[in-house]
TrEMBL record:
Keywords, in A-Z order: Cytoplasmic vesicle
Subcellular location: Cytoplasmic vesicle, Clathrin-coated vesicle
UniProt KW Cell membrane keyword: no
InterPro entries with a match to the protein in the record: cDENN_dom, dDENN_dom, DENN_C, DENND1A/B/C, Tripartite_DENN, uDENN_dom
Species annotation: Angiostrongylus costaricensis (Nematode worm)
Record-given protein name: UDENN domain-containing protein
PROSITE patterns hit by this protein: DENN
Pfam families per record: DENN, uDENN
Signal peptide: none
Domain UDENN intervals: 21-388
MF (Gene Ontology): guanyl-nucleotide exchange factor activity; phosphatidylinositol phosphate binding
Cellular component terms (Gene Ontology): clathrin-coated vesicle; cytosol
Amino acid sequence: MFGFWCTVTIRCRTDVATLFDVFCEVGTSAEDGLPLILTKYPEDYSDDAALKSVRQFSFPCGLKETDSEAVQLFSFVLTDSRSQYTFGFCRFTPRNNTCICVLSGFSWPGVFYKVLNHISLIMNSGTQGDLDAILTRIYHTDIPNIGDTLKFECHNGMHVSTFQVKIPDVTKLPTLREDRFMLEFYNAVSTRQMLAIYASLLKERRIIFTGRKLSQLSSCIYAASTLLYPMFWQSVFIPVLPESLREMVMAPMPFLIGVPKQVMELNVLKDLGEVVIVDLEDKTLQSAHNDVADMPNEVVMYLKNQLKNSTDMDDSISRSFLRANVLLFGGYRMGFSTGVSQIFHTSQKFVREQRPTLQPFLSSLIGADGVQYLERFIEERTRFLNSGLPISDEFEVEIANMDKLKLQVKENASDVIGTLKDKVTGIQISAKLNKLTPKEIRMPKNWTLKKSSKSGGFEPMSFDNIQWQDDSSRNSSPCPDLSANVPVANLIDFDTPVGNPYSASGIGEFKSTHSCWAN
C-alpha cells in the first residue's frame, strides 16, 4: 500500500502500525530550557528522544510570545538511524500559546492538519473524556488504503459531529488543488525562482528558505524537495529549524533548511558563506552560484516555457519538473551492463551514451564529489533490476512517452528528407532539360499562353519548365534553390533541441521547415 513513491522517494518508515505514534499538547512552561509536554496519548509512549524533539520543534522561535494572532499549521521531520522519516504535524495557537502535535509515519499533511483542527475544537468546547475518545478511536483504527475515507463520530460537549477525511494517493504527483505544500510553494515563489531553486537542488547546494509564517516555510521546504522526483534529497533536511539548533546552518555539508525569520535575524547567522537564501517575505533569492547557466539549454528553455504557462490547479508544476528530470536522467539505463551474475551500472558509460549537450552537466554530478541523490537513485534502480522487481512509476511512464515522441519525430524527419530528395531530383532534371532548349527560342519569364493570330491555335511549347507554372505560382515567393550545392541533410538541424518535446509544436517545427516544398 505504500507504493514506490513512498518507500523509495520520501523515505517513509516501513514499520508503521498505527495512524499516529503519539499526540502531544505542548505549553510554554519551561523545563531545562524547553517547552513542557502537558498531555500525551498514549500515556505509555516512551521514546524520550522523539518527545524531546517534539518539545524543540513545537516552538521553533522560542518561548517568547508572538505578535500574530493567526493559528499556524506547520510540519517537521525526524530521521532515525535507518535514514527513515517520522513526520511531525503541529497546530500552534498564539492566543493561549500552546501547540498540539502528532507524530506519524505517514506524510499526509491534509489528513493530519484536519485531525488537529478537529481535536482543537474538542479541546476548546468538549470534555477530557471527549478528547480521549476521539484519540483512542483514531489511534486504534486500521491502516486505511489509498482513496479510503476515514470517518468518525465525535462528541463535542452536548453535540455529536462527524469527522471524515479522504486518504491521498501518494503514488501520484502532487497537485495544486490537493497538495497544501505545493500550493504554498506556488503562491510564495516566482517561476524564475523555482528554476533557480531546482538548479541549486541538482547541484546539492546549502539552501535556506526563510520567512515569518511557519506554515509557508515548512510547506515550501517539502515542496522544493519533490522537484527532484523520482530522486530525493539525501542530505540534511529540516523544514523548520528551531532556535536551539540554529548552529546547523553553519554545517559544511549540503542542506535544505527552513529558518524562521526571527532566527535568521540573529547575529550568529550573519556569516553563512556560500549559501542559497530564498526569502519568502522579501520575495528574493541570493546565491553565489549561477547554477541555471550550468544546466543544459534545452532543459532551461523547456522549464521556462512550461512554468510560464502553468496556471491550472492540476499537477502541471510537478510534471514539468518531472519531465525536466526525464530530459536529464531518462537515459540512466544506458549505463547498465550485464555481468556474470548481475546487472551493474557505470557512471562513465551512462554519461558517454548521452547527447553531447547533456554530457558536461551530467559529468559534474558524478565522481568523487558527485551528488548523493543520483547515486542513491541508481543504487535503488539496480537493486530492483537484480531482484527482478518491476519498476513502474511516473518517471518510467514519462520516459516511455519521450521514446514514443522521439520515434515520431524521427519518422517525420525521414518523410522530410524523402520529400527534399524528390524535389532536388526534379530541380536537377529541370536544369538539364533547360540546357537543351536553344537560348534564342527560350520564352521570357513573363510569357503566358496566347493564341496564334495565324493558325488560331496555340504556339508550340518549348521544354522550358516555366510553362508549367501558373501566374499565381510565379508571383508567389519562390522556394530556395537547392541546386547550389546545399547538402540535403543540413537543411534540418537535428542537433538543435526542440523547444517543447512534450507538445505538438516540437514536431511542427520539422513541418514548417519544408512547408514550401509540400505545396
